[in-house]
Amino acid sequence: MGLTASRWQGFGTTIFTEMSALAERTGAINLGQGFPDEDGPAEVLEAAQRAVRDGHNQYAPLPGVPALREAIAAHQRRFYGLEVDPETEVQVTFGATEAIAAALLGICEPGDDVVCFEPYYDSYAAGIAMAGAGRRPVTLSPPRWTVDPEALEAAISRRARVLLLNTPHNPTGKVFTREELAQIAELCIEHDVIDFTDDIYEHILYSGEHVPMATLPGMRERTVAINSLSKTIGGMEYSNAMRGDGLQVTKPIDGASQRKALTMLVSALSPEELAIPDTVLTLMGPRPFSYNPYVELFGARTRPAFDELGAARTLAQMIADAILQRERAARLVQFASRGSNPLTLGETIDTLTASWTAGRDDNLKNEALRRAAQRAVADRLILLASDKEAAPEVRALVELRMEALRKRARALSASGGEMERAHWAAIASDFTRWLERQELPSPTPALRAPPGDPFGLDW
Q: For residue 457, is it left (φ>0), alpha (ψ between -120 and 50) or beta?
């Protein structure tokens, strides 16, 4: 008999704990956990020290210190026009993760369903299991991470008790639109479902608007809003809302520093950076013929398998998306007239496509990784050119660069090996479809590893 309840089977330490320990052990840069680069506003640090010195260091009231609860209520009133009673409608916890777990335990009965949008923060699954509830994921569809209305209604119309919503969304960055939230609210009201909103990134927005669910008709009394002070302070500092000292929080960076940062980002698209070390690959064989990604017992009947090219393509897409993000492209255009020798959008695209040359590596693996990176950049250029919310100057400049790159791709498709010619011909064709017919090509899926060894028996 195990020491833990059966509902905990399958749960171990969080991925953040594992990655942080691995980074510490190997001396690697830890990108797996959101450690801040700075210690936070000096005013907050000094206030904490002063509170300890002044004797505010004993047991706090279980609902939270009254002054903090009143400040939380004032925050909701100031930013969203919501009137919240600090005595009866505000509960302070040790972080948002505890708040989510406590809310699930307090509201869900064993056998209830909790609807959540996938991908999701890993503690959601653990909290749902702890409450004895069932998890009903609804997968967001890339690249825009849209909600499938039919899938959502199917998930919410069974035994759903709670809908767990995170916006702005971790890890995709998606900000649910007012229309999407209105549809979710309508379903919650229709099926008598309580909405938990994980709003911890509400003040960290690069586009769109954050709409609290409680502000929508009929949702005030069926919404549990969850927030986190650390994210709130970090996000609001950008808008200078809490500092109030008149200092400029952000300022333009000189062109030389921007180019240095861009060069470092683009270097991550090189085969050397995208490649999985051979020491790791030797531990992971190719996927066997009988592999089924939806069979949970797969790990129990064979050794781990890995799709190296798919992983490289995913990383390349993330880098290209970050560099050619809509708002960043607009700022590159906007600030082109400021300062001396600023980094421009055209220069950024030129730097990203500097590797668009004939294959030059006898290492077939390196060439495949280079093609994966080039394909990711091509796809991102098409998405940016077709983005109706992008600035007209951005779309026009991207299309100009695409025209020149189409000619280059056509020239490259006339020589080289078979895979090389097909690669450049496909990019030229996709650029043509957009430039001449305003048609979007189908998203390029990551190349799946072949079943089993290319030749040999399945095990």
A: beta
User: Distance between CA 155 and CA 163 in Å, rounded?
Assistant: 10
Written in H, E and C, the secondary structure of the chain is CCCCCHHHCCCCCCHHHHHHHHHHHHCCCCCCCCCCCCCCCHHHHHHHHHHHHCCCCCCCCCCCCHHHHHHHHHHHHHHHCCCCCCCCCCCCCCCHHHHHHHHHHHHCCCCCEEEEEECCCCHHHHHHHHCCCEEEEEECECCCCECCHHHHHHHHCCCEEEEEEECCCCCCCCCCCHHHHHHHHHHHHHCCCEEEEECCCCCCCCCCCCCCHHHCCCCHHHEEEECCHHHHHHHHHHCCCCCCCCCCCCCCCCHHHHHHHHHHHHHCCCHHHHCCCHHHHCCCECCCCCCCCCCCCHHHHCCCECCHHHHHHHHHHHHHHHHCCHHHHHHHHHHHHCCCCCCCHHHHHHHHCCCCCCCCCCCHHHHHHHHHHHHHHHHHHHHHHHCCCCCHHHHHHHHHHHHHHHHHHHHHCCCCCHHHHHHHHHHHHHHHHHHHHCCCCCCCCCCCCCCCCCCCCCC
Percent of the chain with pLDDT over 90: 48
Token code pair at residue 80: 């969203």
Fold of 93-251: Aspartate Aminotransferase; domain 2 (3.40.640)
410-441 residue pLDDT tens: 999 998 888 999 999 999 999 999 998 888 87
Give the contacts of 148 (CB within 8 A, at least 6 positions apart): 138, 139, 141
For 282-335, how does the pLDDT look when each residue is reduced to its tens digit (9 = 90+)?
666 555 555 454 444 444 444 445 567 777 888 899 999 989 998 889 988 888
Q: What local confidence, expressed as pLDDT, does residue 446 receive?
A: 44
The tokens for 118 are 């996938």
**How far apart (Å, rounded) are the C-alpha atoms in residues 50 and 319?**
43
Q: What is the pTM assigned to this prediction? A: 0.54
